[in-house]
Amino acid sequence: MQLQKYLIPIASVAGVAAAYRAYGWAGVAIAVGALVMWLLLHFTRMMTVLMMTVLQRAAKRPVGFVDSAVMLNAKLRPGVTLLHIVAMTRALGELRSDKDVQPEIYRWTDGTQSHVTCELVGGKLKSWTLERPAPAP
Questions:
Q1: Residues 70, 71, 73, CA angle at the centre, nearest 5°?
Q2: What is the strand order of the sheet 115-121 is part of?
Q3: Do 67 and 99 sit in the same domain of this protein?
Q4: Is pTM, for the whole model, over 0.90?
Q5: What is the CATH number of the domain that holds 123?
Q6: Domain containing 13: what range?
Q7: Which of 2, 4, 19, 53 is most buried (most C-beta within 10 Å)?
């Protein structure tokens, strides 16, 4: 992994230099175009793998369920994306607001009926609340 960190940029610069030496500015245009295409394909593949992994895990659990609402509450930070929250909980949240209306409100509940309600604006976490049931007498 450490080798790729340096090898890919050096090989890219060497390839562009070789293209310039062999074909002039037309070769540079082709080499840079090929590099941009490779970067776009690599980025698309990485994002697809990330999204599929998170969504496949979430598909195996009930909607709106989390192992511990208290632990989720402790891990949340303002500005976290919905994808990050789904990755943390390994479950899709229960949508509590109307579809496609801002702010979006999602809820995750654990086995003790404690729940975290998250308010997201533009796909980013704005605020959240933890509610725990009253202890039985």
A1: 65
A2: 94-95, 104-109, 115-121, 124-131
A3: yes
A4: no
A5: 3.30.1450.10
A6: 2-58
A7: 19
